[in-house]
Amino acid sequence: MKLIDPALTYNSSQKILVAVDCTIFGFDSKNLKLLLFRRKVEPLKGRWSLIGAFLQNDLSIIDGAKSILFESTGLKDIYLEQLKTYGAVDRDPVERVISVGYYSLIRIDDIDILSVEDYDAKWFNIDDIPELILDHGTMVSDAIAALRIRARHEPIGFNLLPDYFTLPQLQALYESIFQSKRDSRNFRKKVLSLNMLEKTDKKDKSQSKKGAFLYKFKKNAKLVKDRRDFLFDF
Amino acid sequence: MKLIDPALTYNSSQKILVAVDCTIFGFDSKNLKLLLFRRKVEPLKGRWSLIGAFLQNDLSIIDGAKSILFESTGLKDIYLEQLKTYGAVDRDPVERVISVGYYSLIRIDDIDILSVEDYDAKWFNIDDIPELILDHGTMVSDAIAALRIRARHEPIGFNLLPDYFTLPQLQALYESIFQSKRDSRNFRKKVLSLNMLEKTDKKDKSQSKKGAFLYKFKKNAKLVKDRRDFLFDF
DNA sequence: ACAAAAGTGTTGAGTATACACCCATGA
DNA sequence: TCATGGGTGTATACTCAACACTTTTGT
């Protein structure tokens, strides 16, 4: 059967259930984490899954994603990126559903604990994710891969940190995003050379007796984006 | 209204029309081009648009995209990437339609001209795109941006070239993808250092009297992907 | 012989990496 | 005073960017 066929127009085409599923990243000063939820409906009720919902006709997809995040965490205006749309015919055992995947970065301590507990949710380390329903495991792997790529090109890491943070915290964040160690001298040199951070005169003493200076992210930092220094950048 | 609500499950949720739209890139040895089609159905019949169709219930999204490409160009097994899903409530004037965008790279000379002419299609330079229906103009800008990013990380340019090509051709391709000139000495040095190309002893004399050596892409070329040399690569 | 495109090396600057010790503080 | 994490500098290797002339050959 031909798909491109003037006869197959609006009212002769099939409609499909559309879901929006959201991978929520957080950072607890040690590890990159994922917020997972126990599924509330049959089938597979009680199993771990991403948070999601069916998209209603009067909401744009992005607004659907924002609502889901707000309803599950109590947060607004958080970092949100569309990831990919998943459309295998049999990805849902009940009926055909396509799902638009998003990922978001939140500051763990901002989160509204009560609303999270309502939803029977839990933070998991990204290297210790339980089995997830449907293709949510794939979505999570894709989200982690997308986060890594984007974190190398844009300073999105700051969306995972509190307003004031220390350089050792920032380093731990990048180490846990990329799952590999950095040299602290080189790390500090590079980060500071980007002129995105503002040093304060306050210290955070929760991690050491000496204390580490707190920094904040300069919102209007202009980023040097015109470098062409990558692998296939002929 | 709450989206996340156990009462809002499969049979109580609204279904939505889902379209798949495809941005088709080609390269004619001089310029990066886009294949656009005259819309066959009302409303906006006859206006330029991407090629697309409504997704049927028994096809995965990617298979829908492949079918559309096959029906419009006669080509199978071509490079195809999911771009983004477009979901504004009023993006289609007739009724709610969400559209999954794809982009594909084809070898212009492979294309089945007859099937293209059936569809009333035309190649446009990417710096000279006409006004497109709906949000297809946005899709095209997004596709060009995505192509540029991906072309810097993976050797996808070869999907736009014939099996045998010259280095000046390859350089022209990258120049037209990025819309900026390269130094031929630096370009050749860098390309050849990647060990992805196999030189043949044949020459292409269509562009000059001297002729340029033909190369082919090594399919099993292992790419050095472990460099960490980018802007936010802390 | 000449026009037109193909092909070729070197140098300087900037950036990444490797590496080890002193500092400040609370217990 | 000592254990713990915070903070600092230098030398080497590498990669990018800038730059101009010679070669080939058909007409």
UniProtKB/TrEMBL annotation, chains A, B:
Highest taxon above the source species: Bacteria
InterPro entries on file: NUDIX_hydrolase-like_dom_sf (IPR015797), NUDIX_hydrolase_dom (IPR000086), WH-like_DNA-bd_sf (IPR036388), WH_DNA-bd_sf (IPR036390), WHD_NrtR (IPR054105)
Any matching Pfam family: NUDIX
Domain NrtR DNA-binding winged helix: 157-217
Residue ranges of every copy of the Nudix hydrolase domain listed in the record: 18-132
Protein's name according to its UniProt entry: NUDIX domain-containing protein
Phylogenetic placement of the source organism: Bacteria, Pseudomonadati, Bacteroidota, Flavobacteriia, Flavobacteriales
